[in-house]
Amino acid sequence: MSRRIDVIEFKFEVDAEVGPVSELVETKESESELRFQCFLLGTRQTIMETKDGGNTWAPRSIPSAEDEDFNYRFNSISFKGKEGWIVGKPAILLYTSDAGESWERIPLSAQLPGDMVYIKATGEKSAEMVTDEGAIYVTSNRGYNWKAAVQETVSATLNRTVSSGISGASYYTGTFNTVNRSPDGRYVAVSSRGNFYLTWEPGQPFWQPHNRAVARRIQNMGWRADGGLWLLVRGGGLYLSKGTGLTEEFEEVQVQSRGFGILDVGYRSQEEAWAAGGSGILLRTTNGGKSWIRDKAADNIAANLYSVKFLDDKKGFVLGNDGVLLRYLG
């Protein structure tokens, strides 16, 4: 089997531990420019940048995030053209209009419910932001004003609908474990305990809770390239939803996970996707997820792989713990 990945190991100082990547993004200064620029986020204000397709990475500093006695964990980054956004914990919002050369800190309300876990650049001076309590906000003026897209947090929704038959809702702690956005703006989120999941579509006033369709608790969920859902359960199970819309019907797909949990799935194209997990597990499908084979190129990597991101059909990354990053070679 030809080698499809390249292993990159970062040698960080002790005080620069790298956390999970929420998003790896590409920016282009013009349509004709071939420069590939990408950012990698982590804890302790860690931000790494590459301008050569991921061959080499250099640490970047953001002075506006280093002027206080806080260690920020950057959770999410998103670009639209030269405009970019970063959100993190404790609450911090950063904005750039020059492809990340400089960053401006945008003030946030102290009443913001929950921690910011995701942001999506949606247009000129516009973005969509999500907190781990289910609040969704949109801005169209560079982050100076935000408008709520949902009427209440998920906790409030579940307190009203606890008698609706959602298993585990009464034990809900009020935060998401994971949240993923589809290209058309739909969201799927997993409850903190993995008891159930929630969905939201633009225009809906509230999040919609759903019972999990499997016995084991949910690890992660996301969107397939065809608009359907994938679902991972604790212990290594992989399920695909029936059809391409929102549904509570899922079918299990047999995978060779060797007993290790699968933590994330990323689609390279309509038919090809990669799944990553504990102890260097790396799986590949070429038929839309109907069957998966293990890619042995990652077998000797002593790391848990927990984030898969394809920027397009030629550029992809898998992030692991201890500073391990895999780069897709094709």
Automatic annotation (TrEMBL):
Gene3D superfamilies recorded: YVTN repeat-like/Quinoprotein amine dehydrogenase (2.130.10.10)
Protein family (similarity comment): Belongs to the Ycf48 family.
Keyword Plastid included in the entry's annotation: yes
Keywords, alphabetical: Chloroplast, Photosynthesis, Photosystem II, Plastid
Chief site of localization: plastid
Photosynthesis system II assembly factor Ycf48/Hcf136-like domain mapped to chain residues: 38-328
Function: Essential for photosystem II (PSII) biogenesis.
Lineage per the UniProt record: Eukaryota, Viridiplantae, Streptophyta, Embryophyta, Tracheophyta
UniProt protein name: Photosystem II stability/assembly factor
Pfam families assigned: PSII_BNR
Naturally occurring in which organism (per UniProt): Stylosanthes scabra
Key word Isomerase present: no
PANTHER family cross-referenced by the UniProt entry: PHOTOSYSTEM II STABILITY/ASSEMBLY FACTOR HCF136, CHLOROPLASTIC, PHOTOSYSTEM II STABILITY_ASSEMBLY FACTOR HCF136, CHLOROPLASTIC
